[in-house]
Structure formats: C-alpha cells, structure tokens
Amino acid sequence: MIEIHATLAEGMPLAYASVVREARLEQGESGLEPVEDGWFVANVRDVAWYTSDAFGSACRFESREAQFAELGVNLRVLEPGQSNCLYHGESNQEAFLVLHGEALLLVEGEERPLRQWDFVHLPPMTEHVAVGAGDGTCVILMVGARGEDEKLHYPVSELAARYGASAEQETDSAPEAYARFTRPRPERPASWGRLPWA
C-alpha cells in the first residue's frame, strides 16, 4: 500500500489516504474467485458457487486465499425445505434480505414467514436459521460481522429439527455440529436457469 499525505497551507494534515490495489480474480472450478486482497467488481453470474445437498447453494464472493476480515457476505439460494445452515447463535451481528421467493425464519424458537424484500436484523447470539419455503427457489443476501474472537453456539432445537437444521448435540464447535454433512462442492445451483440473474 502507498500512503498519500496532503497538507493545508498552514502545514496541518488535510487527509490520509491509502491506495488499495485491485484484486486479481482467477477462474476456479465453478467461477471467478479473488486470489489476493484488494477491491474488485464481479457479477453474481460469473463468481464461484458452492452447493450442498443439505444447505442449498452459496456465492461467498471471497476465497481461502482472500477472505474478508471484517464482513462476511454471501448470496444463498434455497429450495423449499432447505436450510442455509444449522440453527445457531453467534457473537457477531448478522442481517438477511430476501431478494427473491419465500423463506421461513426460525428465530429464538419461533417461526416467521419471509417474502421478497423482507429484512431481518439479528443481534449477537440470536438463535436462528433460514429455510426455503413456498413453491419455488428463494434467494437471500446474508451479511455478518466478523472478528477474531467470534463464538458460535449450536443448540438442540425441536423446531429446527423438523427442517433437518438442528445440531444432534449441543455444541460450540462448528466442526462437531457439521460432522455428519459432506462439504459443499464447487457447483452452481440446479435452479440456475430460473434465477433472477440468469
């Protein structure tokens, strides 16, 4: 990074700015991925997607080589009955915006229907999960704060278990909670041709 320092006539600092380079994107198995830190612009149609039989499909916009340090952002595509993850609470704030279709929000032991343009605010440690609903594909923009000391909790939830979205045993370990599931594979959603950007 290069630091630029401008001054007023009296010699007082006017501004400090850093020049941040554009990140290089490379073609991965299922689309473009950043391979270094930096700013970039990428279209949802072109970026890497990962699909799980249990948890739908996700476009995360980042990669193992270039992870976002402070803010997780992903686009999730869910079919009816598919959850985006296991029911959990975490120490950082999250927010969802339903862009297309319908979903159910399982939150603090309650079920709330979500439809297009519904926004969900989740303060730290709010237990939750989203489940695709209705008769078609659902697309949700999911954003969450990140931090080095992030804590997760996966309770056993009777409500979430009805949707296959509960941990089998209460745990604070993501690897333990997800041990029975296969890792997502680099693949676009099966419903790709019916999605808003297709």
What can you tell me about this protein's structure?
The chain has 198 residues and is mostly beta strands. The chain has a single domain, classed as Sandwich (Jelly Rolls), CATH 2.60.120. 4% of the residues lie in helices and 39% in strands. The protein has two helices and 16 strands. The N terminus is likely disordered.
Low-confidence spans? 1-9
User: Whole-Å distance between the termini?
Assistant: 37 Å
Binned, the helix content reads under 10%
Q: Give the tally of structural domains.
A: 1
Structural class: mainly beta
What labels describe this entry?
198 residues, mainly beta, Jelly Rolls, seven-stranded antiparallel beta sheet, disordered N terminus
Briefly summarize what is shown:
With 198 residues, this protein is mainly beta. Helices cover 4% and strands 39% of the residues.
What is the topological layout?
Blueprint lengths: L1 E6 L5 E7 L5 E3 L4 E3 L15 E3 L3 E4 L11 E8 L10 E2 L3 E7 L1 E6 L2 E6 L3 E4 L5 E6 L4 E8 L6 E2 L4 H4 L12 H4 L7 E2 L12
